[in-house]
Structure formats: C-alpha cells, structure tokens
Write a structure and sequence with these properties.
Distance between the termini: 68 Å
Order of helices and strands: HHHH
Radius of gyration: 19 Å
Strand content: under 5%
Largest sheet: none
Shape: elongated
Number of strands: 0
C-alpha cells in the first residue's frame, strides 16, 4: 500500500467520522431537546436547546470535514487547482462556522462565555440534584 492510498483512506475515514458526528449529534440533540421540553413544559426551551446543541455538532462536523479535505488535497493530489479548491472550501466553511457561532451564541466568538451550545444544553437537561432536606 502506498502513502497516497493510506492518505486517501485516512481522508475517507475523516469523512465517515464527520457523517457519524452529524448523525449521533442530531439524535443526541433531539433527546436533549425532548428532555428539556418535558421538564419545562415549554416547547420554546426545547427548541432553543435543539438549536444550541445541534449548532455545536455542526461546528464540530465542519471541522472534521475540513480535516478530510485538507488530507485529501495536500497528501493525495497536491495540484495547484486542488489547493485553490481547498482554499475556497475552507473559506466557505470558515464563514459558515463563524455565522453558526454568532447565531448560536448571539455574540461574536471572541465575546462569548466559556461554555458553548452543547455544554449549555446538556447542563439544562441535567440540572444538579437538590440535597435531601434535613
């Protein structure tokens, strides 16, 4: 097996991982939203949890897919045309990630708090237990 073949398989692996992250993240986001909706009785809170958690999943998946494109372009077929195409894809995905973060957080990334969408949604779905009275 040549280096190019190994890198091609690695890029496919990252592509597959990106798809798995999207699918598992969607299911997890739906479960979180349903739990919050059931606990709060308000669909709006569940909807916000779904948007925040799945937005975080989308950001992670985009980063993984960029890694796959990077491996494929640099290690498998490093032509000037492929590098230019990769540059365009990275710019588009970066703008998409940036706009998703602003949409989820309501502020530009350098002004947000330490916890992002998925962390905040998970914390809402699993509130701390109250100590027993006594």
């Amino acid at each position: 097996m040549t280096f190019t073949e190994v890198m091609s398989w690695a890029a496919r692996g990252f592509d597959g991982l990106g798809v798995v992250v999207l699918l598992v993240g969607l299911v997890w986001s739906l479960v979180l939203a349903a739990r919050i909706w059931r606990r709060s009785g308000e669909g709006r809170q569940g909807y916000h949890a779904l948007r925040e958690s799945f937005g975080g999943v989308l950001l992670l998946a985009v980063e993984i897919l960029v890694a796959a494109d990077l491996i494929r372009t640099v290690a498998v077929a490093p032509t000037l045309e492929n590098v230019a195409g990769l540059g365009l894809v990275v710019v588009i995905r970066t703008l998409l990630s940036f706009s998703l973060q602003i949409e989820m957080e309501g502020v530009v990334p350098w002004r947000r708090g330490l916890t992002g969408g998925l962390g905040r949604a998970t914390a809402r779905a699993n509130p701390p237990l109250e100590p027993p009275p006594g």
